[in-house]
Amino acid sequence: MIKDRGTIKWAAMMLPEHVHELRELWEKDKEVAERTIDEQKIELIDYAIKSALTSHMEVKITFYEGRTYIEKLGHIREIDPYTSILSLLTPQGQKLKIQINRIVDVEPTE
User: Fold this and answer.
1) DSSP string, 35-97
2) pLDDT number for residue 12
3) How far apart are CA 17 and CA 52, in angstroms?
4) Domain region containing 30
5) How many domains does the chain have?
6) What Pfam family is a match for this entry (predicted)?
7) Each residue of 67-106: pLDDT tens digit?
8) What distances in angstroms separate CA 90 from CA 4, 61, 71, 84, one per listed residue?
9) What is the predicted pLDDT for the residue at 106?
10) pLDDT over 90 at 47, yes or no
């Protein structure tokens, strides 16, 4: 098995501008386009959010932020209907504010 480091082994011979451009290119490869969800999925997400809020169960929320999808575990604390923002409390004690229209999936973990 060959353990090739790819372009890393050539970095010593590259100009700093080239290394910078390569890093930007690798970051662009990680970017994902936001996908659209249909009305049925929106209704399922709404139902899952409301049931998790009333039963105080832990959920895994997948949402789109910063050109990528992020998954977070936690308990839903409140939903602000005026600003369409959901408050999530993670197991580490971190409080997150998530826009409801950015949520792609909600799954119960218990």
Assistant:
1) PP--HHHHHHHHHHHHHHHHHT-EEEEEEEETTEEEEEEEEEEEEETTTTEEEEE-TTS-EEE
2) 66
3) 49
4) 23-108
5) 1
6) YolD
7) 888 999 999 999 998 999 999 999 999 999 999 999 999 9
8) 39, 11, 11, 19
9) 93
10) yes
- Tell me if 16 is assigned to some domain: no
Which residues are CB-neighbours of 23 under 8 A, at least 6 positions away? none
Summary mean pLDDT of the chain: 86
| 94 CB burial (10 A radius; 0-12, 13-18, 19+) | exposed
Q: What's 42's domain CATH number?
A: 2.30.30.520
Q: Is 33 exposed, middle or buried (0-12, 13-18, 19+ CB in 10 A)?
A: exposed
Residue type, 99: Q
CA 45/CA 91 separation, integer angstroms: 21
How far apart (Å, rounded) are the C-alpha atoms in residues 101 and 63? 9
The answer, yes or no, to whether residue 1 has pLDDT greater than 60, is no
Residue 10 lies in a domain: no
